[in-house]
Amino acid sequence: MSDKDIQIVSNEAGEATAVIVPIELWREISSERETAHLLGSEEMRKRLLAAIERKNGIPLAEVIEKLGL
Question: In angstroms, rounded to a whole number, what is the distance separating the alpha carbons of residues 30 and 7?
């Protein structure tokens, strides 16, 4: 993705007031902001790191099947 994929919206005075970005870039930015927010809390940071190290989970497909979804 290049800078030309990003569009700047200006008002009548020529001042930049908004930005239009491709949806994939927006999703990446949103994900990074959410991660930063979660890692901002010491308690959440501990929980996330513990979850990453957990090895006793079950696959999503199995959960869906068990729930009948």
Answer: 18
